[in-house]
Amino acid sequence: MAFSRRRFAAMLGGAALSAPLLSRLGRPARAQVPQGPVRFLGIRTPHGVDRDYWIPRRSDGSEPGDADVALSELTFDYDMGILQPLMGWRDQITILDGIDTQVTKEGTRPGRRTNHGHNEQGCLLTGAQPPQDREGNFDNHPSLDFFIHAQLPTPALLTAAVTGSGSWKAMSYDMSGQPRSPETNPQTVFRTAFPEDFVPPEPDETPMIDFGPGEARIMSFADRALQRMRLRVSGAEREKIDSHIAAMAALPGGGMGPGPGGMVGACMTRGTDLPGRNGNVSTYTDVAEVTRAHARVIAQAFACGRSRSATLQILNDFPNFFSDLPDVRTGGILGRYGDTFRFHENLVHDYWNASGSDKDTLRVGYLAGLRWSASHFAAVLEELDAITDPQDPTGGSILDNTIVFWHNEFGHDGHDRQETRHPTVIAGGGGRTLRLGRYLRLRNINSSERVPHNLLLTSIAQAVGLTDVDYYGDRDLVDRPEYRGPLVPLMV
After folding, report:
1. Per-residue pLDDT at 237
2. φ, ψ (nearest 5 deg) of residue 162
3. Sheet containing 422-428: which strands, arranged edge to edge?
């Protein structure tokens, strides 16, 4: 039986070999777009963003010259760049620069709040005006994940979090607009999708798909990239690459795709495959482990048809793990706040009111924390990319067939004035209907012009197959033309 490179990597521990290595070498080019069903995953991280260090830049450090530029022509790898961990994923993501949660400013009916702070982040998936009482009731407006699940039902709607957030900072909302509490334990999320007696379908019960051609294209690209890398290194690093090449060549079929009668994509998860990692987070080093465990469960559920929509909240403003990061604990920051400072209440709040050398001091720690969040997002992409999609005949991964919407609780500005310039990354499976590998500047960044994020929610709904959706958001805004339709620059 021949094993594909992706299968071989999975046998050695999943993402440990394949995804990080491929992300460093560059993503594999496909001759055709993925063909499996498209899933949806919403991801949120905390603490806002400094847009000027979040966008990609040209090699000379300047901003992109045009409003629509291939990310392959730009870089995240500049001094203090927040998205440095995403360099290897540039052709699988699109950066939306200048999208706004303008809905928070409307105030079209009583009981609505018109500022944007912590509690208003629920508008990001509901598209609705936030409540004045800040208790999370979004007034009969469901979040996009819940809506997709209702329209494309599967056994489980997965709602995960790395540490709890409480109802007032929820991501997911039911049909009445009430917050849905996330599960912090990956083992509990797993059991939501996989009953203990669940077994994968037998090969003779489900038509098997030959992934040979798609896997062969991936192998060919990766092998060429490995050979190029081999020429650039020496010593122990070259020996590692040589050992890997030799190991792949020793596999039956020379490590190439399975071909007719070989291994093909299939649901590989059983109900007894409970994750070994629980949701306990005691130190900052636990965050990456729990994030990966949640992402792996979501990928398994997507692959086995147990879910098609999910959310993952990676921390919020309250846990103080950001304060423990070595790159955050600079001499300047410790000298200012002392050893027991809090990342959000001290550093983040002060950052937007600081100037000159004071802001320079705070910036080093602030951006280091945001870069840490970007590393978690990259880890999620690796986990999704490590599992072959059983329903994609081209050999695509779960990532290839998942729309991943990464956003932050805040935009770019001071506290409670953060409804503009929300950091937004679209990743993964938008290739059929959404443009990937692009930097898209949606408006004049320093103007009063606004691009409502409701357009993006409509685009995602259409991308997962709900093509009759031409508006998503607050009922009072349905007839406002600036809120209707998809985000045109993002659509293929």
Report:
1. 74
2. -95, 100
3. 68-70, 438-441, 93-99, 422-428, 402-408, 39-45, 309-314, 158-162
- Tell which wins on pLDDT, 235 or 105: 105
Q: Strand 422-428 to strand 438-441: parallel, antiparallel, or no bridges (unpaired)?
A: unpaired
Q: Could you read off the pLDDT of 358-407 as tens digits, one per residue?
A: 999 999 999 999 999 999 999 999 999 999 999 888 888 999 999 999 99
Listed residue (452, 412, 427) closest to 126, CA to CA: 452
Distance in angstroms (rounded) separating the CA atoms of residues 41 and 93 = 14
* Token reading at 213: 């051609």
Q: What's the pLDDT tens digit per position in 15-27?
A: 333 333 333 334 4
pLDDT at 14 over 90: no
Q: How many CB atoms lie within 10 A of CB 288?
A: 15
Tokens of 346: 């001290």
Beta-carbon neighbour count of residue 104 at 10 Å?
A: 22
Q: What is this structure's pTM?
A: 0.84
pLDDT in tens, 323-357: 999 999 999 999 999 999 999 999 999 998 899 99
Rg (CA), the chain: 22
Q: Which of 89, 147, 188, 158 has the alpha carbon at shortest distance from 399?
A: 89
- Closest Cα partner for 195 from 266, 272, 268? 272
Q: What is the pLDDT of residue 7?
A: 33
Span of 20-24, 319-323, 438-442 with lowest mean pLDDT: 20-24
Amino acid at 214: G
**Taking the CA of residue 117 as centre, how many other CA atoms within 13 Å lie in the half-sphere pointing to its CB?**
16
Alpha carbon distances (Å) from 242 to 7, 224, 229? 20, 13, 11
* Cα atoms in the 13 Å half-sphere on the side-chain side of 272: 3
pLDDT digits (tens, 9 = 90+) for 415-438: 666 888 999 999 997 667 899 999
Residues 451-482 pLDDT 10s: 999 999 999 999 999 999 999 999 999 999 99
Torsion angle of the four alpha carbons 430, 431, 434, 438, in this order, in degrees rounded to the nearest 10: 110
